[in-house]
Amino acid sequence: MIVTTTDKIEGKQIVKTLGLVRGSTIRARHIGHDVMAGLRNIVGGEITDYTKMLAESREQSIQRMVQEAEGMGANAIVGTRFVTSMVMSGASELLAYGTAVVIE
Questions:
Q1: What CATH code is carried by the domain that includes residue 15?
Q2: Which of 14, 30, 40, 86 has the fewest other C-beta atoms within 10 Å?
């Protein structure tokens, strides 16, 4: 499965557009990580626990989007985008979405 942020894939032709596909995950913060993040906020630097959590969330969202596209018979997804939103205090959704297509 080719997943791209562009609207077309160089050297390939889109022969069929199947429609919108999406994948999302909702993650909550961990109180222990919040304590460490608070300390890191004082001294500066990367908050590696949150970096890891967000990277895992992106991968899970992409995986779910790809599964939906495969179920539709797609072999590529174009125009992929990511959106985050707060669901409740301490919990956020990461949504990946794009257009499922068949390419040759």
A1: 3.30.110.70
A2: 86
Cβ partners under 8 Å of residue 2, min gap 6: 9, 12, 75, 76, 77, 103
* CA distance linking residue 5 with residue 11, whole number of Å: 16
How far apart CA 8 and CA 88 sit, in angstroms, is 36
How far are the Cα atoms of 27, 35, 38 from residue 16, in angstroms, in the given order?
Answer: 34, 50, 49
Report pLDDT digits (tens) over 63-91.
999 999 999 999 999 999 999 998 887 78
Number of domains in the chain: 1
Full-model pTM? 0.83
